[in-house]
Specification:
- The chain is α+β, with helices and mostly antiparallel strands and about 120 residues long.
- Helix content is about 20%, strand content about 50%.
- It is built from one helix and six strands, in the order αββββββ.
- The strands form two sheets. The chain has a three-stranded antiparallel sheet with strand order 1-2-5, with no helix packed on it. A three-stranded antiparallel sheet has the order 4-3-6, with no helix packed on it.
- The longest helix has 25 residues, at about 1-25.
């Protein structure tokens, strides 16, 4: 009975160690995959909700997002800086244009970041 328990324990331990080794060897590091979205807050003509999502397996540092505001008066570029966006996470921010008109549109122009 004791020998059977010992063999069973060794088999379970070997299975766990084998599983962990396979996970470590086959884990695939992907760079940050950032996506930014912007949405006007209902009832507010100049306040926008910004969502930054990182679906990669690495953290993005010093994230800068370029927003382009366009309307009858031409285009204006604005940037939003976020310290970091961890892997597989989402950050939210608010963007306010005090002099915006209701007819203007705001779009994401580009995203830049540093690797840790």
């Amino acid at each position: 009975m004791e020998i059977g328990t010992f063999i069973f324990g060794l088999a379970v331990l070997a299975a766990i160690v084998g599983y962990l080794v396979v996970r470590i060897i086959s884990s695939e590091e992907t760079p940050p995959k950032l996506r930014a979205g912007i949405e006007r807050i209902e009832g507010e003509c100049c306040t926008y909700s910004v969502t930054i999502e990182n679906s990669g397996s690495q953290t993005a540092e010093a994230v800068t997002i370029l927003f382009v505001r366009s309307g009858q008066g031409g285009t204006v570029e604005t940037t939003l800086a976020v310290d970091y966006v961890p892997a597989h996470s989402k950050r939210e921010a608010m963007l306010v244009f005090p002099d915006a008109r209701p007819t203007e549109t705001v779009t994401v122009g580009g995203i830049s970041f540093n690797l840790p």
